[in-house]
Amino acid sequence: MNKKNPQVPDENATGLRKGLTSYGDNGFSLFLRKAFIKGAGYTDTALDRPVIGIANTGSAYNPCHGNAEQLIEAVKRGIMLAGGLPMDFPTISIHESFSFPTSMYLRNLMSMDTEEMIRAAPMDAVVLIGGCDKTVPAQLMGAASAGIPAIQLITGSMLTGSHRSVRVGACTDCRRYWGKYRAEEIDDEEIADVNNQLVASVGTCSVMGTASTMACIAEALGMTIPGGATPPAVTADRMRIAELTGAQAVKMAQTGLTIDKVLTAEAIENALRVLLAIGGSTNGIVHLTAIAGRMGINIDLKALDRMGKETPVLLDLKPSGQHYMEDFHKAGGMATLLRELKPLLHLHAMTVTGRTLGEEIEAAGPGFAQDVVRTAAHPIYPQGGIAVLEGNLAPGGAVIKQSSADAGLMEHEGQAVVFENAADMADRIDRDDLDVNADDILVLKNIGPKGAPGMPEAGYIPIPRKLAVQGVKDIVRISDGRMSGTAFGTIVLHVTPESAIGGPLAYVQNGDRIRLSVRQREIALLVSDEEMARRRQAAPVVPPVAERGYKKLFLDTVTQADQGVDFDFLRAPSMKQSVPK
Ligand code: FES
Ligand code: MG
Predict the structure, then answer these.
(1) 283 C-alpha to ligand 2 centroid (Å)
(2) Of 123, 468, 510, 571, whose CA is between 20 and 30 Å from 246?
(3) Are residues 333 and 445 in the same domain?
């Protein structure tokens, strides 16, 4: 504090003195700020302690964050017990089912909102409350760029429900039952019953979809309190994690534990390792690439594929396995998994507790017998859940979640059945005159970052009805889009470059032969270069544009999947490191 004038802050100011809005007179700025905070009923004592921002993403449109109010109360309790001043503030909230045209279209907007609110409002540390798929990546991206001490609080998973004595949970079972309904195995009445049971409480999807994936990744990154990934949304464990998170945020403010000390190359590598070992959502790669990109760290897909070959899937959760998030929590949560993965992790990576990941694994104790996390000797799947493909159809790479693909289709050559875009697919997929056989390959164009726009999760192309009623459960599908982490099938995603900017995918025609070889890590279009050049010249692709608004910003600046689908101007100006090594 300035000795002559206690109203004037120095550059190390904290609390409400931090980051004064300039009216050309710092003393007056603080005077005004105090007047308004007193207008809210606070006394002067509130000014002389760390201010901890709490990003409140509660929204009636977001049932996955339906416990936000209770979480905020617990976080505030933790902050005040530790001597800080809690200040919650709203940001955009994104829910998967309520975000048109797709939640991914809004992720970068939420990251900008988060970053700029952290920059704008006086706060010495920030608690990020996120859960639903895009929220945690958006918050970590924004906080990474803002640079202050930040800690992630996950909202937690929903409870599982029960349909006619069968345990169900969103959203792998949503798809399974919808598939049965489409195949006319269950009737209108039963599908309505299922609908009541799939989401049994507030909280995020209960399987290893993107929300659970990002929760586990956040803990693996060291960005949560240990044990912060798995407690279900409505439990006392979740509320205690919230209280601890608030208290830890105050310590982080006091010790200056900024986010760059946690989000290091080692931490990103640990997170990639965990992504593979949990059979995590393919979306996790895109989000981690975006988060790492904010820190100037590039994710090398080829190296990731090598890492996958030596990382078994250990977590027995749907859709790769059989359990749900609440079971993982009862089995000890991430500590159980991290203990098993220890030989493959960077144990010196710093976490938000001020202790290293290795120290936290030790502190969690020896573990106990359980059947949700397998040992490395008896994995669910011998290799990582995700394989990276390359070939003339995807010069910039593509991915497949091999752990939830049909083993019989992973080496497959077939004839392309092409859909030009999502509307065309919706229009024709169920028609009786669709010319398709079970050994064909469905190709969907124009659902990449710029194509849809927003790279929607339309990559999970449904089995055409005429095949579904014949009992066909899987078919090779290829697109430049994403798929929900709760989906399953032999599905090639994130084909880069996308068709909307003229990637080879744009020029695939009905009847072309395509070869998928997961063993060779290859996705090949068996059409000559000359023929491709001819097609390119005959009907060149014109990339989409928009006249104004967020859509213009999006189409002008969004990057491809291999750069995390972040806006180019939000990524770090240069990439200093590449992971995994
Ligand atoms: Fe929010 Fe699944 S819809 S986590
Ligand atoms: Mg999802």
Answers:
(1) 9
(2) 571
(3) no
Distance (angstroms) between ligand 1 centre and the Cα of 461 equals 19
Q: Could you give the number of structural domains in the chain?
A: 3
Q: What is the mean pLDDT of each run of 10 residues along the chain (581 residues)?
A: 50 86 85 92 86 98 98 98 97 96 96 98 97 98 98 98 95 89 93 96 96 98 98 98 98 98 98 95 96 97 94 91 96 98 97 98 96 95 90 96 90 98 96 97 98 93 93 96 88 97 98 97 98 97 97 98 97 96 90
In a domain, 448, yes or no: yes
Tally the C-alpha atoms within 13 A of residue 200's C-alpha that lie toward its C-beta.
17
pLDDT of residue 3: 46
pLDDT of amino acid 24:
80
Q: Which residue has the tokens 């004038």?
A: 5
Same domain, 189 and 253: no
Indicate if 319 and 400 belong to the same structural domain: no
Has residue 250 been placed in a domain?
yes
Asked whether residue 6 is domain-assigned, the answer is: no
pTM of the model: 0.96
Q: What is the whole-number distance in angstroms between the Cα of residue 217 and the centre of ligand 2?
A: 15
Are 148 and 166 found together in one domain? no
> Which residues approach ligand 1 with their CB closer than 6 A?
64, 95-97, 132-133, 170-171, 204-205, 209, 211
Calculate the CA dihedral of residues 474, 204, 158, 403 and round it to 10 degrees: 30
Atom of ligand 1 nearest to the CA of 212: 4
pLDDT at residue 10 in the model: 66
The residue type found at 420 is E
Within this chain, do residues 343 and 331 fall inside the same structural domain, yes or no?
Answer: yes
Nearest Cα to Cα of residue 152 among 135, 129, 119: 129
Pick from 306, 318, 319: which is nearest to 383 by CA? Answer: 306
Tokens standing for residue 414:
């077939």
270 shares its domain with 123: yes
What integer pLDDT is reported at residue 2 of this predicted model? 44
From atom 3 of ligand 1, which residue's Cα is the shortest distance away?
Answer: 96
* 195 φ/ψ angles, rounded to the nearest 5 degrees: -55, -30
User: Which CATH number goes with the domain that contains 486?
Assistant: 3.50.30.80
Among 283, 302, 501, smallest CA distance to 390 is for 302
- If you write DSSP's letter for every residue of 126-176 in order, what string do you get? EEEEE-STTHHHHHHHHHHHH-S-EEEEE--BPPPEEETTEEE-TTHHHHH
Whether residues 57 and 104 share a domain: the answer is yes
Which residues have CB under 8 Å from 243's CB, separation 6+?
74, 75, 77, 78, 81
Residues 528 and 496 placed together within one structural domain of the fold: yes
Q: Residue whose CA is closest, atom 2 of ligand 1?
A: 205
Residue 378 inside a domain? The answer is no
